Amino acid sequence: MALAVDDIHMTYGELKAVNGVSFTVEEGEFFGILGPNGAGKTTTLEIAEGLREPVKGSVELLGEKPWPRNLKLLPRIGVQLQASAFFEKLTAREQLETFGALYGVKSHRVGEMLELVGLTEKASTPEAKLSGGQRQRLSIACALIHDPDIVFLDEPTAALDPQARRNLWDVLREIQARGKTIVYTTHYLDEAEILCDRVAIMDHGEILAMDTPARLVRDLNAATHVILEPGTLPLDQARALPGVDEAHETDVSLTISTRTPAPVLSALADRGTLDGLQVRTATLEDVFLELTGREYRA
């Protein structure tokens, strides 16, 4: 067991930032803590890392208690915070060399980390001249420079453009492929659905659901939406198709809802109406909406 969090609580005045959170993370697992801003994700992560003491509950990290600050754990954990602070005027390579020196890391490790995060060509570039995505990748490299067993990443893809986010996904997959345990927070549900082995969905300081993304979606038993161009089929005929639960039409689409999409698609194929068709299955966002009854806020 890499991490065991048991009934942790954290309050700030009247605010219950974390309210009875419990979960475990296995070695080599990619575990995501999901939720909107203010859900309690960062506080939960900081308690797990040993940066904060909970008012109640306990944490066991790699078989040790992380609080009070446990010096034995420091070489075995890597932490990338929401806001990264680098040394002024140092290049990407110099940043990594400086972080590595704190752990007695040999110089060849710096080149390996630059290659892992795709910054080899930016090694001589001052940190201030790196793009947002490059800076995030450098921050992750700093968290990995000493080859930790478990890595904590707090919203590593926040504020990145879509291309930079996708590039960072590849880095995260490679980290896990090297046998590392990853615990990360995000409010991007689509991202977690692709990357995580298991996820915990949080809001208002509590875990609302926890399982593999596929099982959470499957257990929701949500309808599949078949989306067609408006006017493709008269609305009354769409509603009469076998397996249709509901159908409605707007100026931009005809949407058919069904829990048995196979007969619906077969009937549409018989009518030659598959051109431009889209099929949307349930996602983690649908799970969140079902659990909270309100729109997901980033």
UniProtKB/TrEMBL annotation:
Statement: the UniProt record of this protein carries the keyword Methyltransferase: no
Domain ABC transporter: 3-229
Gene3D superfamilies found in the cross-reference section: P-loop containing nucleotide triphosphate hydrolases
Family annotation (SUPFAM superfamilies): P-loop containing nucleoside triphosphate hydrolases
Protein's membrane topology: Peripheral membrane protein
Pfam families in UniProt: ABC_tran (PF00005)
GO cellular component: plasma membrane
Cellular localisation: Cell membrane
GO biological process per UniProt: response to antibiotic
GO terms of molecular function: ATP binding; ATP hydrolysis activity
Keywords tagged on the record: Antibiotic resistance, ATP-binding, Cell membrane, Membrane, Nucleotide-binding, Translocase, Transport
Subcellular location, principal: membrane
Family the entry assigns: Belongs to the ABC transporter superfamily.
Name assigned to this protein: ABC-2 type transport system ATP-binding protein
Organism name: Amycolatopsis xylanica
Taxonomic lineage from the root: Bacteria, Bacillati, Actinomycetota, Actinomycetes, Pseudonocardiales
